[in-house]
Design brief:
The protein is α/β, with parallel strands linked by helices. 42% of the residues lie in helices and 16% in strands. The strands form two sheets. It has a six-stranded mixed beta sheet with strand order 1-2-10-7-8-9, with helices on both faces. Strands 5-4-3-6 form a four-stranded parallel beta sheet, with helices on both faces. The protein starts with 20 loop residues before the first helix and ends with a helix. The protein binds pyridoxal-5'-phosphate. Pyridoxal-5'-phosphate binds at residues 67, 69, 99, 101-102, 204-211, 250-252, 297, 299, 325-326.
Length: 337
């Protein structure tokens, strides 16, 4: 049995990136093609509360497979391929658990590279996701939805511990996740804000990579920016309740049983936590679409609602920045119309 760190073991972050990205992209055209379309997403002004701060959002559906997780898929896979050395990529086999969005992105990239991919997912995963993964040649293990996402993670850790030939990417503890958001999402935002200091940074927490990685980049230039984390009402960050199979907005959530996301524990006393229910997100998706003509996903809707709540307590001269992780799945949009 391989030793794999427990999800809630104490976490320390080392920011160095050992990967020479230019060399890696030169050696593997699939990385170069993906990287060429990755990041540098638009920052747009979105409707905010009357008389409150301006709300700006980063449009992550512009990434190659349509979500913020493309950044993390690229970064974690780049590190895995770098550590695989000169061996052929057909001998690399990666395993990861996912709420869905990361798996879609990783499967696409792995197919292009010729790397074998296996995913552990909840049995609540939508048909469109399973079809996309099958089309990219990935294999899938499903875990009963009522056991919650933590059971999905534990199943993956268990499979990885028993299989010496598989490499677990482990998004909740992989430093490449946090480092990528610091180096790209955060750095892009600083450039787009052009010296303007944001009053608050709002992001939904799945791994917390987006929230914390970007926060670290923003704080390096604007130390007073508030950090606002968003999780579902049905299972908030750090909840002592047991895990549950209730429908929640996409890609985010507490684990239950008091377990906390390792990245968020790095800034435990600095993050203000807010929650949004799934029905509120679906209503906000419809409302946002009606007001702007744009389709945003349920976690984007959660971020928008909380950004508006924070902006309502600020002045029009101030700015709240947030992220729209994706544009929503076909299943989410069917629930609305
Ligand atoms: C749609 C969606 N929104 C938000 C998130 C949260 O991102 P992070 O893992 O960086 O906290 C995820 C993560 O999977 C996601 O899939």
């Amino acid at each position: 049995m391989k030793h794999i760190e427990a999800l809630d073991a104490p976490y320390e972050f080392t920011p160095d990136d050992p990967v020479d990205h230019a060399a890696l992209q030169a050696a593997h055209p699939a990385f170069a093609d993906f990287a060429a379309k990755l990041g540098n997403t638009s920052l747009i002004a979105v409707p905010g509360p009357p008389g409150g701060a301006q709300v700006l959002a980063k449009c992550e559906w512009e990434n190659p497979s349509g979500s913020v997780k493309d950044r993390v898929a690229y970064a974690m896979l780049a590190r895995a391929v770098h550590e695989h050395g000169d061996l052929p990529l057909t001998r690399l086999s990666v395993l990861e658990y996912s709420g869905g969005t990361l798996a879609r992105s990783l499967a696409r990239l792995c197919a292009g590279l010729g790397v074998r991919a296996r995913f552990v997912l909840s049995s609540a995963s939508p048909r469109s996701l399973l079809d996309d993964l099958a089309a990219d040649g990935a294999s899938v293990v499903l875990v009963d939805r009522d056991a919650g996402f933590i059971a999905v993670i534990r199943t993956a850790l268990d499979l990885a511990a028993r299989d010496p030939d598989v490499r677990l990417l482990y998004q909740h503890r992989n430093p490449a996740n946090l480092a990528m958001h610091q180096r790209t999402t955060g750095a892009e935002l600083l450039g787009q804000l052009a010296g303007r200091a944001p009053a608050a940074w709002v992001a939904s927490i799945g791994t917390g990579g987006t929230l914390i990685g970007t926060l670290r980049a923003l704080r390096a230039r604007h130390p007073d920016v508030r950090a606002i984390g968003v999780t579902p009402d049905e299972l908030p960050y750090g909840s002592p309740e047991p895990p549950n199979g209730l429908p929640k907005y996409a890609g985010s959530g507490g684990f239950g049983d008091g377990v906390r996301q390792p990245f968020v524990t790095l800034h435990e006393h600095e993050v203000e936590h807010h929650t949004v229910s799934y029905p509120q997100c679906l209503t906000a998706m419809a409302d946002f679409h009606e007001r702007t003509g744009l389709r945003i996903g349920s976690s984007a809707a959660a971020n928008w609602l909380i950004s508006c709540r924070i902006a309502a307590g600020l002045t029009p001269a101030e700015t709240v920045v947030t992220v729209f992780p994706d544009a929503g799945t076909p299943e989410e949009w069917r629930r609305i119309s």
